[in-house]
């Protein structure tokens, strides 16, 4: 009998040890350490709990060449509902988890990585809240950083060159700058159209939406989903590639409901009006962000287009996006340059 | 006794029993300490930034409703962003019913103080400055509330902005008063906004002193009900240093007040003097636009009781079209007040409705407007300098009341 009680106690204890701490997701405040959530079986190896499902997006936000790993957690017996043209409506107690890192050497993954931060979006009772945890030097724990943090990081890139960056972990307000729509915090990535792609799960390769259905974390998704293209995919149409990139990198603020709606420049995927997409659109409050140019986009003339000028700049008073970037995304600049060059000039 | 208790409980609740004062002082990690304090503040709290010289590498932000952030004076609490590495502005405010007072923001890389979407923002006794003098590498705006309601700017100083020192855009219920704007491209600018009182300010040594503009293709347009009174817009003599591409880059050096494409504007009891191009200019939006919801012409503009000193003695014909056109049309005899005379075609033919007409009730001011038909057809005598043709009864606009908190 005594043994049985002991066993039961152990069993409960071990179950607790290996389940996500749902109470903390719903709590009024954020714990100091990332490990307290128990999203990971092994935090420093970033090995997730089995209910914490990895996923990828088709096109991603540029964050100074850092790599990102994403996971979604939906509590037992609850599902996220599909919403057309928007992120899934996740149930209370859900979490979106994103770890940023640099590989030591992009040419050789075996050399390991430097974990920078893990950002969380937690679905509380009244809506989403955002917080980030910065990894310590020992890489065995990440600590809550309300006011953000500067990490001077470096890595070896594919060309064998050492790259350096003043990487900024965003503060809580900066999370909101991008993740706010109509004054409420919202995820940006997990729209059905953005995750409609295959992923190599431990059980094999599956379409992510199909896998989420199988795991019963979403209620449905439409069969005829129009998804953005991967902007890096050179076999795809340049218009689609550029719009896909601008959507995920700019459209969360530059949309009629986003933080930059006062500019009248809307780069979200559903925008169709030329003037609002920036074609021959004069700047409003651009200041020296104009670089002496008169229009956001001049078809055929990338070097006269403010949009490209601000993508290329590394000056905080000029560059776009306003936060989350210290380096120029060279490959994307070239792609957008190609896009503007081939735009028909109807003026 | 019971009765006293009964009344004092709700009173205490209203004052917020738990409201506290938080102090941040200079020293190591000031950036992180101040930013953390700004984030952790709670409703009713006051954050006091102790006097000192603070050097910041990243922009600051505030997103808590119902708080006060106060320095110990614009010459004592100085936030210096000369070495800013990230953030598009010095301080960003995105919450409601916020009072900021008594500190300076220097040399921000972008805008100095930006307020987005606030319902209730008091900016009192603050200063924004770019300390290297007028340069096109200075940030665009000193004070920059946008998409906000109940905006008060009182006793502030704005120096060196490469667009506007004090700029209120796409907002409603606005008071800008008792403030000083100098060495900016535009001193004070009210753009695409409704219900503003701009009074008792000094705008001097800017390119243009006070601008009331409306622009197309924006979420809020149709700017109207703006009163500009008891201001001094004098000696605006700084060359335009706005980066090209910006609308204020078209403003010629030496303009006192410009009204562009707004409705219901009352300009009275101001002093305009020492403005080398023109003291007061009332114009249409000059560029092409396909925006069907946009009205490009000024209407119901009332001008009365202003004092006009010397102007037009040094017209800046190099910048934009305004000074050049005015210089040519006037034959070098620059007026105090200029109206471009442009109205919709139907009004050229059938005349302007009375309630849209420009009214000028001034004793000592020279005036010039263009007669559009004669001008377009190249006929002789295409101008009218008789301001008595624009006499009319002034219908005063209502005073602006903003909700206090």
Q: Tell me, what's the shape of chain B?
A: elongated
The proportion of strand residues of chain A reads 15-25%
The total count of helices of chain A amounts to 8
Range of helix content of chain B:
10-25%
Strand order of the largest sheet of chain A: 3-4-5-6-7-8
Quick structural gist:
With 347 residues, chain A is of the alpha+beta class. In chain A, 21% of the residues lie in helices and 22% in strands.
Give an account of the 3D structure.
In chain A, strands 3-4-5-6-7-8 form a 6-stranded antiparallel sheet, with helices on one face. In chain A, strands 1-2 form a two-stranded antiparallel sheet. Chain A has 2 domains: 194 residues, no CATH class; 105 residues, no CATH class. With 347 residues, chain A is an alpha+beta fold. Chain A is 21% helix and 22% strand. In chain A, helix 5 crosses helix 8. Chain B is elongated. Chain B has a domain of 281 residues. Chain B contains 5 helices and 34 strands. A 12-stranded parallel sheet of chain B has the order 1-2-5-8-11-14-17-20-23-26-29-32, with helices on one face. Helices cover 11% and strands 39% of the residues of chain B. The N terminus of chain B is likely disordered. Chain B is mainly beta. Classes of the chains: A alpha+beta (347), B mainly beta (405).
């Amino acid at each position: 009998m005594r043994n049985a009680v002991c066993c039961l106690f152990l069993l409960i204890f071990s179950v607790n040890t290996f389940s996500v701490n749902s109470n903390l997701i719903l709590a009024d405040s954020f714990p100091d350490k990332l490990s307290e959530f128990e999203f990971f079986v092994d935090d420093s190896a970033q090995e997730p709990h089995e209910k914490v499902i990895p996923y990828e997006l088709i096109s991603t936000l540029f964050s100074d060449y850092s790599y990102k790993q994403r996971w979604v957690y939906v509590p037992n017996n609850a599902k996220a509902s599909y919403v057309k043209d928007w992120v899934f409506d996740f149930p209370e107690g859900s979490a979106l988890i994103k770890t940023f890192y640099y590989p030591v050497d992009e040419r050789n993954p075996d050399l390991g990585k430097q974990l920078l931060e893990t950002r969380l979006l937690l679905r509380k009772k009244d809506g989403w809240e955002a917080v980030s945890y910065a990894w310590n030097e020992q890489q065995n724990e990440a600590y809550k950083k309300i006011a953000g943090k500067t990490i001077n990081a470096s890595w070896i890139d594919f060309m064998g060159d050492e790259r350096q960056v003043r990487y900024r972990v965003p503060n809580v307000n900066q999370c909101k700058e991008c993740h706010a729509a109509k004054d409420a915090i919202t995820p940006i990535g997990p729209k059905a159209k953005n995750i409609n792609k295959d992923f190599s799960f431990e059980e094999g390769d599956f379409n992510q939406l199909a896998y989420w259905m199988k795991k019963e974390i979403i209620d449905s998704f439409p069969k005829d989903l129009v998804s953005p293209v991967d902007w890096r995919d050179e076999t795809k149409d340049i218009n689609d590639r550029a719009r896909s990139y601008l959507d995920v990198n700019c459209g969360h603020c530059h949309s009629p409901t986003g933080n930059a709606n006062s500019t009248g420049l809307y780069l979200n995927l559903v925008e169709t009006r030329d003037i609002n997409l920036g074609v021959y659109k004069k700047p409003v409050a651009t200041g020296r962000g104009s670089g002496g140019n008169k229009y956001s986009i001049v078809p055929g003339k990338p070097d006269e287009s403010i949009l490209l000028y601000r993508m290329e700049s590394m000056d905080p008073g000029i560059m776009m996006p306003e936060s989350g970037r210290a380096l120029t995304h060279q490959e994307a600049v070239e792609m957008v340059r190609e896009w503007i060059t081939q735009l028909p000039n109807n003026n | 006794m019971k009765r006293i208790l009964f009344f004092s409980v709700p009173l205490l609740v209203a004052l917020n029993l738990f409201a506290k004062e938080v102090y941040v002082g200079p020293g190591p990690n000031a950036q992180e300490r101040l930013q953390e304090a700004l984030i952790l503040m709670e409703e009713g709290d006051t954050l006091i930034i102790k006097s000192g010289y603070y050097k910041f590498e990243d922009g600051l932000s505030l997103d808590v409703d119902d708080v006060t952030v106060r320095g110990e004076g614009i010459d004592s609490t100085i936030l210096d962003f000369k070495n800013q590495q990230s953030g598009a502005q010095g301080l960003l405010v995105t919450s409601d019913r916020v009072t900021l007072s008594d500190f300076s923001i220097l040399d921000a890389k972008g805008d100095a103080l930006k307020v987005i979407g606030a319902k209730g923002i008091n900016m009192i006794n603050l200063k924004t400055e770019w300390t290297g003098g007028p340069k096109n590498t200075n940030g665009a705006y000193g004070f920059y509330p946008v998409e906000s309601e109940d905006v008060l700017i009182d006793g502030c100083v704005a120096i060196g902005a490469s667009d506007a020192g004090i700029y209120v855009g796409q907002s409603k219920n606005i008071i800008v008063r008792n403030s000083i704007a100098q060495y900016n491209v535009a001193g004070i600018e009210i753009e695409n906004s409704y219900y503003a009182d701009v009074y008792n300010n000094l705008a001097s040594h800017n390119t243009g002193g006070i601008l009331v503009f409306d622009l197309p293709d924006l979420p809020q347009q149709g700017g109207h009900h703006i009163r500009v009174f008891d201001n001094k817009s004098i000696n605006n003599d700084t060359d335009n240093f706005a980066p090209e591409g910006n609308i204020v880059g078209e403003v010629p050096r030496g303009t006192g007040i410009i009204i562009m494409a707004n409705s219901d504007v009352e300009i009275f009891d101001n002093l305009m003097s020492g403005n080398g191009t023109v003291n007061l200019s009332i114009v249409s939006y000059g560029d092409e636009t396909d925006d069907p919801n946009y009205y490009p012409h000024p209407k119901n503009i009332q001008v009365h009781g202003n004092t006009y000193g010397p102007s037009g003695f040094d017209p800046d014909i190099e910048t934009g079209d305004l000074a050049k056109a005015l210089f040519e049309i006037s034959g070098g005899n620059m007026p105090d007040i200029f109206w471009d005379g442009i109205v919709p075609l139907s009004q050229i033919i059938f005349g302007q409705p009375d309630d849209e007409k420009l009214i000028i009730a001034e004793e000592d001011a020279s005036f010039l407007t263009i007669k559009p038909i004669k001008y377009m057809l190249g006929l002789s005598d295409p101008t009218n300098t008789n301001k008595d043709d624009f006499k009319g009864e002034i219908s005063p606009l209502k005073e602006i009341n903003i909700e206090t908190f």
